[in-house]
Amino acid sequence: MTKLDAKIPEGALADKWTKYRSSVSLVNPANKRSLEIIVVGSGLAGASAAASLAELGYKVKVFCFQDSPRRAHSIAAQGGINAAKNYQNDGDSVYRLFYDTIKGGDYRAREANVHRLSEVSGNIIDQCVAQGVPFAREYGGLLSNRSFGGTQVQRTFYAAGQTGQQLLLGAYSALQRQVGMGNVKMYTRHEMLDVVTIDGKARGIIARDSVTGALERHFGHAVLLCTGGYGNVFYLSTNAMGSNVTAAWKAHKKGAYFANPCYTQIHPTCIPVSGDHQSKLTLMSESLRNDGRIWVPKKQNDNRKANEIPEDERDYYLERRYPAFGNLVPRDIASRAAKERCDAGYGVGTSKMAVYLDYAAAIIRYGKGEANKNNMHNPSDEEIQAMGKAVVKEKYGNLFDMYKQITGEDPYEVPMRIYPAVHYTMGGLWVDYNLMTTVPGLYALGEANFSDHGANRLGASALMQGLADGYFVIPYTIGAYLAAEIRTPSMSTDSEDFVAAEKAVRDRLETLMNIKGSKPVDYFHKRLGKIMWDECGMARSAEGLKASIKEIQALQKEFWSDVKIPGEIDNLNPELEKAGRVADFLELGELMCIDALDRNESCGGHFRTEYQTEDGEALRDDENYAYVAAWEYEKQSSFKLHKEELKYENIKIAQRSYK
């Protein structure tokens, strides 16, 4: 098996990025104007990268399948963004953020990339404040911080419960400035359907205009994929319904290795499934675990209403099992703990597949604090409740409103019901230190790559990584490649390679349209999602994974013989778009199960039931599996494994403990 070269700079960990920036090859301003860069995706990673590269002088094209970059799924992030500013003076530092991220990822992330992420985290906040992002502030005007899972410091900056939206508007403003100046050309409602490679290098893409159905060829000296994660392989997830793996999967088939595909993050605080009618799930921000307490009844199959269960009959199981971190344990641990309680018969709600997230104690605590601030002596319970609710509303109001709109229950009066759901994918295209894939000239940024989160992402680190990659990493690292491309002229899209790539895309679309089967696309997507959730979700086993691989292979054959796609190929056709994405999900799902079966250990979000400690925690095998699993596509249902060994020279590997 090939050992991958991550191109990690030499030297001490804390000096790698500084020395790299001082020695990396540069492209002079005149040459930048003749170099073209394609950016696919316009979320936080894509918008920030495109704006930054255009500001440097490159010619940039941006593609997104939405009608505006403002609709990118980054907008859905709620809770916050991490940065090692130590504004709370509670002991935070670049090293502590680095350590928390490595530990939170269960020692399956690359040290050099994570330390770089921690180093630039503070710059992100400064950049966003300068753009006018309205972060929450303390009474004196300083930026406010709150806690997130997996840490014991407050380092998460936030804008109520809509941090992603505000950050995206900041990046969008920077992007639109460059569009207005003519440095960026924006292609909305365009979906990338293939990467064009010439002499082994990425030289462009084939995109489909979703409105007209026309296929287009676009040249670029480099291609950046900023297309998010693949959580919708499970059908039900917290992702936007349009989120997909197609761009990354097409790159995979053109030679880009896919790393750690089985690493999926299950978010512990989502509104539970309510029926077969649902097409997606709704996230309740992890920030709610700051003040909310998670519990289940101590009695099995307890059908009493939450407010009827007295305090001494409640099991605050996270506080009981993990006293050092309590409700703020990492997401994988909190999710498995909730599943364990529900499987054991302590679940709540009509489905019994939920636990409570309770704000009653927080409301009283905040209310008493407000009474003291207002010099109120002997305030009534009603006054304390009213003042406490006002504080909670200021901090989390839009999340509480969203919960009430969806469930019809008022979380100010009764506890929320939550259950884990698919949220984020730590796997993605393998990239080196420069964020380049195994295809020269092809880069992957943000959630589309695998690099920074190991086997479990800490809360509030997704926004951090996306903006770090776009604003502060790729503007430097892309020079290492483009400095050698200044003599490469713009290539004609009439060349043989472009024509062949477009024909391959056209043939696939026509094949899909001509199947004329009897089952709609969603029928196959739902079936795939159930297989993935049951056998490659929160718990996996060798027996279940082997069976699921066969099931998915059979489902692939059925899809390609019986899917029904209405409409026309050369026109607006959402079902055709969806069919292409589900076809890719079917192939990805198979690889995810293969990867999960091959990794005979438990780590982070990858929990093999055969490998667990006596008290049910993930049991790693560092001797045999301390590597990144990077899969090369060979042919249908055939993938070759390559390994990148993970070396920990600055952190001592240990069994994770949050007790």
UniProtKB/TrEMBL annotation:
> Is Flavoprotein among this UniProt entry's keywords?
yes
Q: Which GO terms describe its cellular component?
A: plasma membrane
UniProt domain Fumarate reductase/succinate dehydrogenase flavoprotein-like C-terminal: residue ranges: 525-658
**Alphabetically, which GO biological process terms does the record hold?**
anaerobic respiration
Enzyme category, top tier:
oxidoreductase
Q: Where in the cell is it found?
A: Cell membrane
- Primary location: membrane
- Topology in membrane: Peripheral membrane protein
| Active site per UniProt | R331 (proton acceptor)
Alphabetized, the UniProt keywords read:
Cell membrane, Electron transport, FAD, Flavoprotein, Membrane, Oxidoreductase, Transport
The keyword Transport is assigned to this record: yes
Molecular functions per Gene Ontology: electron transfer activity; flavin adenine dinucleotide binding; succinate dehydrogenase (quinone) activity
The UniProt similarity line reads: Belongs to the FAD-dependent oxidoreductase 2 family. FRD/SDH subfamily.
Q: What is this protein called?
A: succinate dehydrogenase
Task: Name the source organism.
Answer: Aquirufa antheringensis
Q: Print the organism lineage.
A: Bacteria, Pseudomonadati, Bacteroidota, Cytophagia, Cytophagales
